[in-house]
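Researcher: Checking consistency across runs. Here is Transcriptional regulator, ArsR family again:
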Amino acid sequence: MNNIVEIIKLFSDQTRLRILNILYDSEHCVCDLEAVLEMTQPNISKHIKKMSDLNILKKRKQSYWIYYSLNNEIFEKYDFVESILRDIRKEELFQNDLKKLKKYLDSPKSCHI
Protein backbone atom coordinates (compact mmCIF):
# COMPACT_ATOMS: atom_id res chain seq x y z
CA MET A 1 0.00 0.00 0.00
CA ASN A 2 1.32 3.42 -0.88
CA ASN A 3 2.10 5.77 1.94
CA ILE A 4 0.94 9.28 1.06
CA VAL A 5 3.59 10.91 3.27
CA GLU A 6 6.39 9.05 1.47
CA ILE A 7 4.92 9.95 -1.90
CA ILE A 8 4.76 13.62 -0.95
CA LYS A 9 8.40 13.46 0.23
CA LEU A 10 9.34 11.97 -3.11
CA PHE A 11 8.19 15.17 -4.84
CA SER A 12 10.60 17.26 -2.78
CA ASP A 13 13.54 15.93 -4.80
CA GLN A 14 14.28 17.70 -8.09
CA THR A 15 15.99 14.68 -9.65
CA ARG A 16 12.97 12.48 -9.03
CA LEU A 17 10.69 15.11 -10.49
CA ARG A 18 12.89 15.28 -13.57
CA ILE A 19 12.75 11.49 -13.96
CA LEU A 20 8.97 11.48 -13.57
CA ASN A 21 8.69 14.27 -16.11
CA ILE A 22 10.65 12.23 -18.65
CA LEU A 23 8.58 9.12 -17.97
CA TYR A 24 5.27 10.99 -18.10
CA ASP A 25 4.75 10.42 -21.84
CA SER A 26 6.49 7.12 -22.44
CA GLU A 27 8.72 4.44 -21.02
CA HIS A 28 12.49 4.79 -21.07
CA CYS A 29 15.58 2.87 -20.05
CA VAL A 30 18.14 4.18 -17.59
CA CYS A 31 20.54 5.04 -20.42
CA ASP A 32 17.97 7.56 -21.72
CA LEU A 33 17.75 9.12 -18.27
CA GLU A 34 21.56 9.20 -17.95
CA ALA A 35 21.89 11.09 -21.22
CA VAL A 36 19.23 13.68 -20.43
CA LEU A 37 19.98 14.23 -16.76
CA GLU A 38 23.76 13.94 -17.17
CA MET A 39 23.96 11.72 -14.10
CA THR A 40 25.52 8.35 -13.46
CA GLN A 41 23.63 5.08 -13.68
CA PRO A 42 24.01 4.33 -9.93
CA ASN A 43 22.62 7.73 -8.99
CA ILE A 44 19.62 7.35 -11.29
CA SER A 45 19.06 3.76 -10.16
CA LYS A 46 18.89 4.92 -6.54
CA HIS A 47 16.03 7.26 -7.42
CA ILE A 48 14.32 4.64 -9.61
CA LYS A 49 14.42 2.15 -6.72
CA LYS A 50 12.82 4.62 -4.31
CA MET A 51 10.01 5.35 -6.76
CA SER A 52 9.56 1.67 -7.61
CA ASP A 53 9.34 0.80 -3.92
CA LEU A 54 6.46 3.27 -3.64
CA ASN A 55 4.78 1.65 -6.66
CA ILE A 56 5.00 4.86 -8.70
CA LEU A 57 6.98 3.17 -11.47
CA LYS A 58 6.52 -0.02 -13.43
CA LYS A 59 9.25 -1.87 -15.26
CA ARG A 60 9.33 -4.02 -18.34
CA LYS A 61 12.28 -6.15 -19.35
CA GLN A 62 13.15 -6.56 -23.01
CA SER A 63 16.31 -8.47 -23.81
CA TYR A 64 19.11 -6.74 -21.88
CA TRP A 65 17.14 -3.56 -21.24
CA ILE A 66 14.73 -2.62 -18.48
CA TYR A 67 12.21 0.04 -19.41
CA TYR A 68 10.54 2.14 -16.74
CA SER A 69 7.19 3.87 -16.97
CA LEU A 70 4.73 5.55 -14.67
CA ASN A 71 2.28 3.31 -12.90
CA ASN A 72 -1.09 4.81 -13.88
CA GLU A 73 -2.69 3.41 -10.73
CA ILE A 74 -0.93 6.13 -8.76
CA PHE A 75 -2.90 8.76 -10.73
CA GLU A 76 -6.14 7.03 -9.85
CA LYS A 77 -5.25 6.79 -6.20
CA TYR A 78 -3.80 10.28 -5.71
CA ASP A 79 -5.12 13.08 -7.93
CA PHE A 80 -2.34 15.45 -6.92
CA VAL A 81 0.35 13.32 -8.58
CA GLU A 82 -0.79 14.00 -12.12
CA SER A 83 -1.47 17.62 -11.28
CA ILE A 84 2.11 18.09 -10.06
CA LEU A 85 3.56 16.37 -13.11
CA ARG A 86 1.50 18.51 -15.48
CA ASP A 87 2.46 21.69 -13.63
CA ILE A 88 6.21 21.07 -13.59
CA ARG A 89 6.16 20.84 -17.39
CA LYS A 90 5.61 24.59 -17.45
CA GLU A 91 9.03 25.16 -15.86
CA GLU A 92 12.06 25.78 -18.06
CA LEU A 93 14.24 23.04 -16.51
CA PHE A 94 11.64 20.37 -17.22
CA GLN A 95 10.95 21.67 -20.73
CA ASN A 96 14.68 21.57 -21.43
CA ASP A 97 14.85 17.96 -20.27
CA LEU A 98 12.18 17.02 -22.80
CA LYS A 99 14.04 18.84 -25.57
CA LYS A 100 17.27 17.04 -24.63
CA LEU A 101 15.41 13.73 -24.61
CA LYS A 102 14.06 14.27 -28.12
CA LYS A 103 17.50 15.28 -29.39
CA TYR A 104 19.11 12.26 -27.71
CA LEU A 105 16.53 9.80 -29.05
CA ASP A 106 17.13 11.12 -32.57
CA SER A 107 20.91 10.78 -32.24
CA PRO A 108 23.14 7.82 -33.13
CA LYS A 109 24.19 7.65 -29.46
CA SER A 110 20.73 6.51 -28.43
CA CYS A 111 20.35 2.83 -27.62
CA HIS A 112 17.03 2.98 -29.52
CA ILE A 113 18.67 3.34 -32.92
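Researcher: Does this match what you'd expect to see?
Model: One thing to look at in this run: The chain has seven helices and three strands.
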